[in-house]
Amino acid sequence: MSGFCPELSDDVAEVRDWVHAFARDVIRPAGAEWDEREETPWPVIQEAAKIGLYSLDFFATQWFEESGLAVPVAFEEIFWGDAGIGLSIVGTGLAAAAVSSSGTPEQLGEWLPQMFGTPDDVKLGAFCASEPDAGSDVGAIRTRAVPDGSDWILDGVKSWATNGGIADVHVVVASVDPSLGTRGQATFVVPPGTPGLSMGQKFRKHGIRASHTAEVILDGVRVPDSCLLGGREKLDARLARVRNGERAGEQAAMRTFETTRPSVAAMAVGIARAAFEYARDYAREREQFGRKIGENQAIAFLLAEMATRVDMARLLTWRAAWMARNGRPFTQAEGSMSKLVAGECAVWVTEQAIQILGGAGYTREHPVERFHRDAKIYTIFEGTSEIQRLIIGRAVTGLPVR
């Protein structure tokens, strides 16, 4: 593709090395402990905040880096350290992306700083789109937003929300006109301490256990017009176009997911790389039948395939991130391609890492079993592999594939 070059600038390489050092020295040593505890790793988040890694300034600077590669490069390093802790550090970014993609300049200035706080007073953000009965079908969202004068009343239940219920700022997708499906939805910010918002069930998960995932209950939550991302005038104009049979633009939740797919893919690449490197190093040292197991073709060929798939996933991820940053449309669903390939790569590579370690890989004495548990979510959340194939299939055929 003209213009795309998978070579990092000096600035991006410097950020990569800086983040890698933090992941190596702080995140990775804490991974097993917080996985066992299944709790938000507040001390690690605070350490990240102290060095400027968990901060609005860091996320904004990397997001607007001209090549588009800074975010995926940084995320790969963070998740190479540990996926559960990594998601606790970057989870606020999804809520921030929702505000950035739909909000006014005034709303960005108001809410983004409140999502991160300061090193001495760390804050979190949560993006709340999924629901218990909706899953990948964002058109089935039942949470309602009803106007009441210059306010809105939100009622419903959100599920699978990262930082849900413990975040300071919640960003909620709700239906303002159910008859219009996804085109009748809008996104709202629920400020800290708003009455009626509470945490429901906290989920105990197979992997990424250090990342808090829970239901969010919205019971008569009242927010002012200023919390409607984009403003009421823009919403009314969009709804009027839809009712007149005109195009309304991209749906808010889907726009957020498409924007962040390369970033999510980079997380999966980090997990896959961690598993490959651990299995490779093990194969270099472990002896069986008088020689290193890596000398056996069965192991060496498997490692070759693992390395190839990690590089393939990374290149697709970098391409999509570069396209997004440089305004190139995803005509072939390149964002979904990166998420699909990276997610399935992470699952396959981590499973092979366990196989190379044998029985030892199945125990918690080695991290590959945790890598495998963490990887599986990347074929499920922010669009399952099946949804990614559906999006890609529609793009490449031009047909309404169902």
Automatic annotation (TrEMBL):
<dbReference type="Pfam" id="PF02771">
    <property type="entry name" value="Acyl-CoA_dh_N"/>
</dbReference>
<dbReference type="GO" id="GO:0003995">
    <property type="term" value="F:acyl-CoA dehydrogenase activity"/>
</dbReference>
<dbReference type="Pfam" id="PF00441">
    <property type="entry name" value="Acyl-CoA_dh_1"/>
</dbReference>
<keyword id="KW-0285">Flavoprotein</keyword>
<dbReference type="InterPro" id="IPR013786">
    <property type="entry name" value="AcylCoA_DH/ox_N"/>
</dbReference>
<dbReference type="InterPro" id="IPR036250">
    <property type="entry name" value="AcylCo_DH-like_C"/>
</dbReference>
<dbReference type="InterPro" id="IPR037069">
    <property type="entry name" value="AcylCoA_DH/ox_N_sf"/>
</dbReference>
<dbReference type="InterPro" id="IPR006091">
    <property type="entry name" value="Acyl-CoA_Oxase/DH_mid-dom"/>
</dbReference>
<dbReference type="InterPro" id="IPR009075">
    <property type="entry name" value="AcylCo_DH/oxidase_C"/>
</dbReference>
<dbReference type="InterPro" id="IPR006089">
    <property type="entry name" value="Acyl-CoA_DH_CS"/>
</dbReference>
<protein>
    <submittedName>
        <fullName>Acyl-CoA dehydrogenase</fullName>
    </submittedName>
</protein>
<dbReference type="InterPro" id="IPR046373">
    <property type="entry name" value="Acyl-CoA_Oxase/DH_mid-dom_sf"/>
</dbReference>
<comment type="similarity">
    <text>Belongs to the acyl-CoA dehydrogenase family.</text>
</comment>
<keyword id="KW-0274">FAD</keyword>
<dbReference type="Pfam" id="PF02770">
    <property type="entry name" value="Acyl-CoA_dh_M"/>
</dbReference>
<dbReference type="GO" id="GO:0050660">
    <property type="term" value="F:flavin adenine dinucleotide binding"/>
</dbReference>
<dbReference type="InterPro" id="IPR009100">
    <property type="entry name" value="AcylCoA_DH/oxidase_NM_dom_sf"/>
</dbReference>
<keyword id="KW-0560">Oxidoreductase</keyword>
